[in-house]
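Archive entry: two folds, one per protein. Generate the first.
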Amino acid sequence: MKRHPLAIAALIIVLGILIGLVAGWGMAQYETGEIARQVRARNPNDPLDGLPFIGLGIMLIGFVLGTVTGIVGAVVFWLTNRARAGKQGKELVENASH
């Protein structure tokens, strides 16, 4: 982790994207099922043409939110790792000068 902070940051972003996609997929399944159930109860002959687009839109929202969350998490990791490395570097310089 200390030697490859950029790889860890990239992994955090990828995990954020995957979690966002899975959450978006699950939410899309639930919401489109509920919409279909309610529409079929009122109008059984409705072809539900726009339902796939609603599902894709919900998945897109999950993807975007997962990406943003992953990027924010990676930036926080990167900054804390840099600050920690800076403190360790100062300590090494101070110890070497004594």
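Generate the second and append.
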Amino acid sequence: MTPLAAHEAFANMPPAEARALLPPELVIETPESIDVTPALLVAAVIVSGRLGDCQDVPDLIEAVEHFRTLLSAGIASLDEWAEEAEEVVDQVIRWGDRMTMQAQAN
């Protein structure tokens, strides 16, 4: 699965269900109109090392759970997760820009 496909899968989940997958101690401060939950979840899957093995939403959820285990064991770090999340957000923005340019060209 690609990061964009994973982002779409998480974005299509009910928001409360998606947020419940995040570590409970996590505090996210963003403008109200921006939901970074899908990007954070994709980043968690990437850090877990299981993105390439994911075929569907249950696989993604299992990878997030594995990430939470790695995080609590100190194997994965919040910094690594934040860096991946920024990369995911950048990919989504670039994809959106390409789609907008294509739509304007047609």
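Annotation attached to the second fold: The chain has a mean pLDDT of 92. The two ends are 29 Å apart (CA to CA).
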